[in-house]
TrEMBL record:
<protein>
    <submittedName>
        <fullName>Putative N-acetyl-LL-diaminopimelate aminotransferase</fullName>
    </submittedName>
</protein>
<dbReference type="GO" id="GO:0006520">
    <property type="term" value="P:amino acid metabolic process"/>
</dbReference>
<dbReference type="InterPro" id="IPR004839">
    <property type="entry name" value="Aminotransferase_I/II_large"/>
</dbReference>
<keyword id="KW-0663">Pyridoxal phosphate</keyword>
<dbReference type="InterPro" id="IPR015421">
    <property type="entry name" value="PyrdxlP-dep_Trfase_major"/>
</dbReference>
<feature type="domain" description="Aminotransferase class I/classII large">
    <location>
        <begin position="30"/>
        <end position="379"/>
    </location>
</feature>
<dbReference type="GO" id="GO:0030170">
    <property type="term" value="F:pyridoxal phosphate binding"/>
</dbReference>
<dbReference type="Pfam" id="PF00155">
    <property type="entry name" value="Aminotran_1_2"/>
</dbReference>
<keyword id="KW-0032">Aminotransferase</keyword>
<comment type="similarity">
    <text>Belongs to the class-I pyridoxal-phosphate-dependent aminotransferase family.</text>
</comment>
<dbReference type="InterPro" id="IPR050596">
    <property type="entry name" value="AspAT/PAT-like"/>
</dbReference>
<dbReference type="InterPro" id="IPR015424">
    <property type="entry name" value="PyrdxlP-dep_Trfase"/>
</dbReference>
<keyword id="KW-0808">Transferase</keyword>
<dbReference type="GO" id="GO:0008483">
    <property type="term" value="F:transaminase activity"/>
</dbReference>
């Protein structure tokens, strides 16, 4: 067999998958290692997808997505970011993951550097590597509440740095940026002429703090914007398998985006697009119910951790809790998580899945059943 491309061979296996697959193979395991909301999909969303098939509307759609869905995303994004986004700037993607790939494909050249959070979602690095770019992790220190610091970022910027990747609310941390920090991050990008890719998968879920998008501080003038925002229905509406998200780009990039996307996916599956349209334009009560469920799960989980004396980062957003297991993990939290699953039949994601600063930490997914969550966490080792 001929050899695989070296940069593909260099991509590391995903530690979240590793522990989750082991858990799925273990009968009765409590799986707290993945962020998959488990709510039933509302009937109006299912019907919208099914009716597309019944009408045999199975041809290509425009590369950028069906116009009504682009308009719905534009309205949604305008309301959520406080900035008027017109539909021409919205590009329908196969989930946020394709939004990341598409946005990085647009702005990164081979050897270019992209600043990615450590700890951060693992595909930020993987996607950059697949494009022959160089991910440069920027530290989110425990001592600073796992928030980015401008001086740490400044110190990492080189003539090859092209992109600053932001993710608030954060997976895995549940941390949320406030308006001052977000503005300072955009100003940093302006000073160094960087693009910002803002992964806003979890923007619908913040608890008692607002979600602030860097789009709110971007220059809206044609040819002057630098913020690309990636959104998804996977988390907001719990529609992970539908594969629909949107990339919002600065004015003027849309023509080029269409050309590039033709070579990546051409367009998103038509039943998924119509189901997404129904989700965005129909009743929103189940998003509110989901947010309340995650908040109550967070509060229940925090109570168990406090009882056990386990430190954690207070989660202001997303549906994860980041907890410090360094008293038990012996400097190898990946190995510890495997052992914890084998012994107690509970899977949590090892912090090292998200970067070196995650050593000693675990990520607990808060999106499932509350009783199972509490039962699983009660098996953690007391500090
Ligand atoms: C931060 C972050 N970005 C992107 C994704 C990918 O989401 P999607 O299912 O929309 O591709 C996830 C999924 O967990 C995520 O947590």
């Amino acid at each position: 067999m001929p050899q695989l491309s070296p940069h593909v061979r260099a991509v590391e296996p995903n530690q979240i998958r590793e522990i989750t697959q082991a858990a799925w193979a273990s009968p009765g395991a409590i799986v707290l290692s993945i962020g998959e909301p488990g709510f039933p999909t509302p009937a109006h969303v299912l019907e919208a997808g099914q009716s597309v098939l019944a009408r045999d509307e199975t041809g290509y759609t425009p590369n950028a997505g069906i116009p009504a869905l682009r308009a719905a995303f534009a309205d949604y994004a305008s309301a959520r970011t406080g900035t008027r986004v017109d539909a021409g700037r919205v590009f329908v993607t196969a989930g946020a993951q394709q939004g990341l790939h598409l946005s990085m494909s647009m702005v990164l050249d081979a050897g270019d550097e992209i600043l990615v959070p450590n700890p951060g979602y693992p595909t930020f690095e993987m996607t950059a590597r697949l494009l022959h770019a160089e991910p440069v992790p920027y530290p989110l220190w425990p001592a600073h509440g796992f928030q980015p610091r401008i001086e740490d970022l400044e110190a990492l910027i080189t003539p090859r740095t092209r992109v600053l990747l932001l993710n608030s609310p954060s997976n895995p941390l549940g941390a949320v940026f406030d308006a001052d920090l977000t503005r300072a991050l955009v100003e940093l990008a302006v000073r160094h002429d960087l693009w910002i890719i803002s992964d806003e998968c979890y923007e619908a879920f913040t608890y008692d703090v607002p979600h602030v998008s860097p789009l709110a501080f971007d220059d809206p003038g044609p040819g002057r914007g630098r913020v690309l925002v990636s959104q998804t229905l996977s988390k907001t509406y719990g529609l992970t398998g539908l594969r629909v998200g949107a990339l919002i780009v600065p004015a003027g990039l849309q023509e080029q985006m269409s050309i590039i996307n033709e070579a990546i996916v051409s367009c998103v599956a038509s039943p998924s697009q119509y189901a997404a349209l129904a989700a965005l334009t129909g009743p929103q009560d189940y998003v509110r119910r989901a947010a309340e469920h995650y908040r109550q799960n967070r509060d229940a989980a925090v109570e168990v951790l406090a009882d056990l004396g386990i430190p954690y980062l207070p989660a202001d957003g997303a549906f994860y809790l980041w907890a410090d297991l360094s008293h038990a993990s012996g400097g190898d939290v990946r190995g510890w998580a495997r052992g914890f699953l084998a012994e107690h039949n509970v899977a949590v994601a090892p912090g090292t899945a998200f970067g070196s600063i995650g050593e000693g930490w675990i990520r607990i997914a808060l999106c499932g059943d509350r009783d199972r969550l509490v039962e699983g966490l009660a098996r953690l080792p007391r500090r």
